[in-house]
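Escalation from tier 1.

The customer reports that the assembly of two entities below gives different structure tokens on two consecutive runs. Tier 1 could not reproduce it. I'm attaching the input and our single run for tier 2 to review.
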Amino acid sequence: MVNLSIEERLVHYFLAMGAQQVSETATSATLTFVIGDQRVNVVVVKSDVFTQSKIIEAILGLGSLRGSSNQLYLAAPRLLGASVDAQVFRSYGVGLLLYDERRINESVPPQVLQIPQPAPLIASPQPTAIPELAELRSMYLEMKGSIAELREEIQTYRKTAVEGPVTTVNPPRPTIMPPEPVFAGSTGQLPSFFANNPWLDVLSKRGREQGEAYAG
Amino acid sequence: MALDNYRSNYTFAMDFGTSDFKFGPITCGETPRIVNNRGYFPDKKSVIYAAFESAADIVVGEDVPLYLQSAEDLSTRLIYPMRNGVIEKRDEPAWRVVNALCQYGLNSFKPTANNGFQGYYVVASLSAISPRYMYERLLEAFQQNNGNRMVRAVTIIPQPFAVAIGHGVTTCVVIESGHGNSQVCPISKYPIRAAQVALNRGGGDANAITSEILKDAGYGDLASEESLVRRVKESIGLVPGDLDTAIDEAKKSPRRFRAKYKVPGTRVEIDLEKDSWSRFLIGEYVFNPNHEIFESYFGRGMPRPKDVKMGDTVFKGMLDFGDAIVAAVERCPVELQPMLYREVLLSGGNFSWEAPERLEGVAVDAPTKIKMLLRQKGIKNVSVKMTASPQFSVWHGCIIYGFAVPEEYEWDWQRLEGWMKLSG
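Tier 1 run:
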């Protein structure tokens, strides 16, 4: 097997993920790639003898690339993996790639950064865009339905105010009562998948109903 | 229904998928947190650990990659406990991973002190074919690890049941198809466990036939790279309405059906050229592997999906999806059967097949294929849908279940439902 340098192996690693190398920089310490519309910079560290302060120094050094990059990685020997704290990388938003003679692994994913004038570099749509659009469409239809129901309810309340109480009962809706006491983490709203879900009514009767003949 | 303000904050769901563990409280909103459903047992004798730190006995969650050592170690030290949906009763390492994931999930959402918190209502979800001992072991794990009183009550529900709840359909058939196997589960307000049918076929089998097609087309060198084969499958694989017609059409107009895939960032381009008709075999194999054309692949060494027994369940290898649905529905009372056929829900990545507009009528999507298979069996009044949010529908269903089921509905070992109270 041909012995490739770590820079050349990183180039192969990113190409396999569908990236394109921006310029032929396979021998310098910084590699630049484009994945979709994201610009990725990778700084390579080679020494196994590396202290915590040196790592932070290297991460801070990556700061100069923030203006021109969406994702920043530090590539370091795997031996360093056991001595570094992943939290340090997460707090700086820098990704960590660990390598040895055989493998390269993404140990900490980078945060996606915004650069001042992002230009779409590849015109083809992302493969996830179509299902996401379909999901957005179904959410939109669901919201439309909820708004129509709310309108109906408001009209009913208006009628009630003018004509006195009406006898029709609306189906139970997943709304929250005022909190008592106030719990930490309260959002004041149930997630959208609660809206018009008939299971809320079915499940709330568990243990109180007759004829559960089909249960297995 | 009576609304429970406490549970609108402190309902917690855990979905143990074959690859991912999705978890989080109701306050996560639409999307839970995800980590791989796996655990790593570090080699405590390693020089690295001796020199630098004392590592935990088992590592789960986002930090697993930081501890991985040589590739040789991975097969024994990196455990994916639910690869097949079932954990063996005495597979202690796998159960330790499950315990660790439960703790990791809860500790990731530890509420601050003195805010009225009296423990989460936890709903965990397991594969539909999980035997009773899996329920026992998991509930035992929650009981034993509740020293910090993070759990007030716990329950377990099957994944297809959670899908039906998340989708808002109370009477239906849910088909969950993952990497290794598929489950057909009728639901009528309850999961009808006695009617479930399991198949020993999933996305991995579509990869296997794609690999054979690549070999036949002269790309044998690429056929062993699993991730590439999967990408080729997703890019060129098609589901035929009728396989014979699709092959004839593709052979007549090879240009229209040409299957080409360029690996991004490389010079590698896969072009099936005159064999582009074979792209239809990929989708057909998932839904129905019984066509005689597949015999030539079995004859040349591709393993035929076998019937296997895991836990209490026999997984059928060669049953097509139409027969599997009919078999499941026909185990239910006759008066219920028409209502079950009326709502068939497809869930899982193995149903994400696209039907390009230009190949309309020849290539179809998964719901259409299931409808066609059922029509061949004489079942016509059918509605088949994909779940709106396939990745999270189980977690959504668990959250709704945990929010709505009354607190006084106690755990019942016959029904495998209800709350097991742990504190409070």
